[in-house]
Amino acid sequence: xxxxxxxxxxxxxxxxxxxxxxxxxxxxxxxxxxxxxxxxxxxxxxxxxxxxxxxxxxxxxxxxxxxxxxxxxxxxxxxxxxxxxxxxxxxxxxxxxxxxxxxxxxxxxxxxxxxxxxxxxxxxxxxxxxxxxxxxxxxxxxxxxxxxxxxxxxxxxxxxxxxxx
Length: 165
Fold this sequence. Notes:
The protein is built from 5 helices and 6 strands; from the N terminus they run αααββαββββα. By secondary structure, the protein is of the alpha+beta class. The chain has a single domain (20-159), classed as Nuclear Transport Factor 2, Chain: A (Roll), CATH 3.10.450. A hairpin with a 5-residue loop joins strand 3 and strand 4 (103-112). Residues 1-18 form the signal peptide. Keywords: Signal.
């Protein structure tokens, strides 16, 4: 019981250290993440340089948990020789920061060309060189009115051997 109490205290302490970012930090974060999305929209390989060497990108398929180098290699065909890889435009973003401003996390609503509306969350690390993405997770926003149909389609695809990972 003492361990549970201690864990809860540590968790609440962590929450207390979270702060709304200053207007200047918020502007920097939005410019960085928007620029990252713009790199993909224009098929610039610099997109991958904004992900930390130890960064992780989680896509919409359950087998898509990519470390930066593997993600770069997998996505190379979407970028090389193309004018656009994928287009994500944030329509809303909520940004939070640690007390020291070195760790930033956010969630965003995205309008995309190919997937409709999506949601994502990410974690940034502020370094001497600027920001880098440590973790990003993308999900397709499925309206509640059709979630049962989508769920049934997923089960059907899995039963047929799709997404066997």
